[in-house]
Amino acid sequence: MPIPEWAKAHQRKGTEIKQIRGHYYLYERKGVWNKVKKRSEKATGAYLGKVTPEGVIPPKKRIDGLPVLSIEYGASTFLYTLGTDILSVLEDSLGKPDGQAVFALSVMRTISPCPFSRAADRYVGSQISRLLPGLALSPASITSLLDRVGANRISCARAMRTLAGPAPYILADGTRCASASEGMDKAVPGHSKTHGYLPQINQVYVLSADASGGFMPSFYRNVAGNIPDVAAFRLTVEDAGIKNAVVVADAGFASTDNFKMLKKSGLDYVVPLKRNTAEVDLSNLCFQTVFSYNGRAISATCVQRAGYDVHVFRDESMRAQEMSDLVVRVEKANAAAEEKRDFDPRQDLRDAGCEAAARAEKFGVIVIRTSLVGRTPSEIYTTYKTRWQIEQFFDTMKNGCGADASYMHDDVGFEAWSFINHVMMLLACRLLALLRDKGLSKDWSLSGVMDYLSRVNLVHVADQWRMAETTDKTKKLLNKLGIELEDIPT
Asked: Which residue from 101, 103, 48 is spatially nearest to 80, judged by alpha carbons?
């Protein structure tokens, strides 16, 4: 008997439908190499679920042959709702099967770091398998998925441009991702604060500021680990299709060569300089204005140069703190010196007052060079302060979401891995923005929220999926996030 059209509608690429005793079931279909015939042959893979007119019913997770009648519900449902527009863009750019698979993997990796080899088990034990049924996520299927997505950089870039937030755009000096795979051409030794000169890939990111004061990932581009950040900026901006991006770097970025390359690329920048820079003489400096930033008084002045400005700021609170730190260190050093057997007060004691006076001009001072000529000191200082938020973004990506190192075997796989991480960071940053908007960011982290939401489970009771019991703390968190347990359909 032929497969009816309503059943064929649920068939996806890389799958097949089988009829067994009047019912229809979805299986993976994969190619297996026949050593005798020297060719690839089609073979039936993992069972994906029962096909019904309403959709594909995924199989129950089994451990030691016994069904587990409980699935994670809260975190996956919340992230699915948070990213419905992302899912739609992925389906349009990559096609429905691959777009849904990328989204499902991103959701599961946002909840907690999940290696691809265990994605199938996580998928079956999660509500995402009911929201996006019938996905082929076995190790072999994911390998094929990574090959397709990684080789389709054009579609991935189009999806990123569609999902990119509004200006202003910040270009972050790249973050390095270590990889020891010999099959990756881009993984070459290059300087990194964390990885030394290990083989690594440089990921250059374009970020967009959101309304809550954080950042959203807009675009990324992978370049070889030995390519300097500034050399990769221009093509990254062109690929992202954006204008007016500003490079915000740390003090280690400031060099004559880097400034020349930025000028040649036509990119604006805000880069801090060392306090002993020759650009300004701090001893003869007169601050021209003062403004407040987060309740702190900031004195400021500007020195105009040919084609750029040098702003000097003095954070009065930081100035007092640095002076106090110096005095405390000198007093501790003097106390330790007095314990010496051959203590000589004329040689071993330091004068805290003299040392503080000698360094007074540098306490609390921040020197910034920028191509944004004519901007107010407050605008430049606020832009510079986004550097801390950028560091928080990369810390979330590497430590909170487990994307600090790659185990992909080739450049195509790494490209797909990077894109899945990009979608994962979109979801993570949206959640962090929601926490800031609700005033919860001081009490809750990304991992903390995911931990509590993932404790909201569905259980199979009396042939129905029902919401399992949960704690009052989890209910309060859901309510603060605007989620009512009673309003969640099961």
From this structure: 103
With beta carbons less than 8 A apart as the criterion, state whether 188 and 227 touch: no
Token couple for 442:
């001081």
The number of residues in the chain equals 490
* In 136-198, alpha helices (H): 139-150, 153-163
- Identify whether residues 86 and 200 lie together within a single domain: yes
| 82 and 227 housed in the same domain | yes
Tell me if 208 sits within 8 A of 215, measured CB to CB.
Answer: yes
Identify whether residues 30 and 5 lie together within a single domain. Answer: yes
Q: How far apart are CA 80 and CA 213, in angstroms?
A: 24
In a domain, 312, yes or no: yes
Instruction: Decide: 368 and 310 in contact? Cβ < 8 Å.
Output: yes
Non-local CB neighbours of 192 within 8 Å, separated by 6+ positions: 176, 178, 198, 200, 225
CB 451 within 8 A of CB 186: no
Is 380 within a domain? no
Strand-strand pairing, 246-248 and 169-178: parallel
| Cβ–Cβ < 8 Å for 98, 12 | no
DSSP secondary structure letters along 26-80 = EEEEEEEEETTTTEEEEEEEEEEEEEETTEEEPPPPEETTEE--EEE-HHHHHHH
Residue entry with tokens 């569905």: 458
DSSP strand pairing (308-315 vs 296-305)? antiparallel
| Count of domains for the chain | 3
Work out the pLDDT band at 360, boundaries 50, 70, 90. confident
Residue 81 makes CB contacts below 8 A (sequence gap 6+) with none
Check whether residue 181 and residue 49 sit in a common domain: no
pLDDT digits (tens, 9 = 90+) for 250-260: 777 888 888 88
Same domain, yes or no: 238 and 365: no
Q: Is residue 355 part of a domain?
A: yes
Q: Are residues 77 and 52 in the same domain?
A: no
Q: What is the largest CA-CA distance in the chain?
A: 103
116-158 pLDDT, tens per residue?
Answer: 888 888 898 889 988 998 898 888 889 899 999 999 999 999 9
Domain that holds residue 188: 58-267+390-460
Q: What is the DSSP letter of 397?
A: I
Residue 36 pLDDT > 80: no
Half-sphere exposure of 420 (CA within 13 A, CB side): 34
